[in-house]
Amino acid sequence: MQRVAVIGAGPGGIVAARYLKSEGLEPVVFEQGARLGGQWSGEPGHSGVWPSMRTNTSRIMTSFSDLPHNGSTPTYPTNTAMGEYLEHYARQFDLLPSIRLRTPVREVSQDSDGKWVVRTDAGEETFEQVIVATGRYNKPAYPKVAGLDSFSGSGGISHAFSYKRPEAFRGSRVLVAGCSISALEIASDLAMLGASRVVVTNRKQRYVLPKLISGVPTDHVAFTRFAALAEESFPMAAVGEGLKGFILASAGNPEQFGAPRPPENIFEANISQSQFFLPLVAEGRIATKPWIESVDRQTVHFTDGTSEDFDAIVFGTGYDLNLPFLSADILRALNADEHHLDLYQFTFPARLPGLAFLGMLSVVGPYFPVLELQARWIAYTFSGAQPAPSAQELQAGVEAYRARRGGPQELPCHAAALLFARAAGVEPNLEQWPELGRGLMFGPLTPTSFRMNGRDSLPDAPARFAEEIKAFGCMSSDQLTPMQAGQLQALAGARDVESFARFVASVPVSR
After folding, report:
1. 8-state DSSP, 447
2. What are 364-384's pLDDT values in tens digits?
């Protein structure tokens, strides 16, 4: 049996092993920690979750298509529930015998025959193929700040990755740097759990979406197939205005709450998410400042000329790519640095056949549907069920990525999901499902929705998807609203694809 090395037993590595196995391949999963689950293992040193942390994506969008969460799971599961979910998934597909815990990979290299050599403390093994699924968020990135090394606050300097005990900051003056989800969630946590003062500093205020909009999880209405197709079909200026209009209508402008005003261009500003940050700013429980100019012991000077003393600084300023186990030759071939890997569609290198990367892209929105689709594409390609990209396609894709180096590296989850679904040949045939047309276009891109057509389709997937789009009161009718009908007609005109126009005409509209 053809063996495939999978490096990392987080969500990406586990779902990759599941599909490799179903394709008749033998996965061997190497995990450095004592538990599977990656970030959701909660294991010190390998996990960036903190005790009170919940998911920022809903339970339907934080699951795989083969295993829904049970009915008692809250809308936003706890981190421990997610760890248990992943262990359950591994047991359900009999993956535990394939996972080698406490087995860090020391080096991956290629031998003279083109085979892949994986070296651990136990020795070397040779594989036909390798999937790197070690995750994108495990090496904290710190910005360069003049005088930062001089900071003498009693709480010290830390990163969101190591934030574990909010009670350690009780009564303290804390500066939280960054506008990412983790930065805003940690600032909210500290403000509600007893820090005496919480200040958030960032270079640029983002627009902030709450977790829930009128009781519906934001990921059910913000990351849709319509949004993905609109980005492909309409001018980006029009797409940006539409996105900003949605955010302002559902969440307001941060300036209304007392936070800085974001840039007018939504793509320049970017988007973050937090249920409590903006209300806490409005209540005066979180203050905001522009970026840090310099640090002098306990005193932090800001770019607006003000200064303030702090007991602790927590950086929520992102992560660098961390692939120390790849040989120098491989890293050179990938043109790798802290932020970039030269890959075709974020997955395959141009001249290293048999090597693939899973989950190494920055995704805005739910990760689980994207991970599963990318895992399916890789598994289908490695097994031969799906044609591998040609050498010309690989090179053209890598060159297209190189042209975007230095620009924004985040990809909306709806765009990523459609990218990998098309590559795997599992994008739903829209014409086949007019009765689900509203949900397929304006509902959540649930993992189940990608099991309706193509390889590994499930007979009950359409019925399950019909239930998922009704969850949380997201969509009570299968009929388009007049506004949605108009949006689809405009999209059909922009795409000018006959089959899509037929689909649009077949979806029922409320009168």
Report:
1. G
2. 999 999 999 999 999 999 999
Write out the H or E segment, with its range, that includes residue 172. Answer: none
As for how many domains the chain has, the answer is: 3
- Residue 454, exposed/middle/buried by CB under 10 A (0-12, 13-18, 19+)? middle
Angle, in degrees to the nearest 10, between helices 482-495 and 225-233? 40
How far apart are alpha carbons 379 and 24 in whole angstroms?
Answer: 10
Hey, what's the torsion of the CAs at 354, 355, 359, 363, to 10 degrees?
Answer: -100
Local structure of residue 68 (DSSP, 8 states):
P
Report the alpha-carbon distance of residue 368 to residue 360 in Å, rounded: 13
The proportion of the chain whose per-residue pLDDT surpasses 70, expressed as a percent, equals 100
Same domain for 325 and 379, yes or no, is yes
Angle between helices 413-424 and 368-383 (to 10 degrees): 20
Q: Where are the beta strands (DSSP E) in 426-466?
A: none
**Domain of residue 454, residue span:** 428-506
> Are 373 and 262 members of one domain?
no
Query: What are the helix (H) ranges across 404-444?
Result: 413-424, 437-442
| Global confidence as pTM | 0.96
Per the domain annotation, does 422 fall within a domain?
no
Backbone angles phi, psi at 488, to 5 degrees: -70, -40
| pLDDT confidence tier of residue 180, bands split at 50, 70 and 90 | very high
H-type alpha helices, 69-224: 79-92, 181-192
In the block, residue with structure tokens 């970039």 = 340
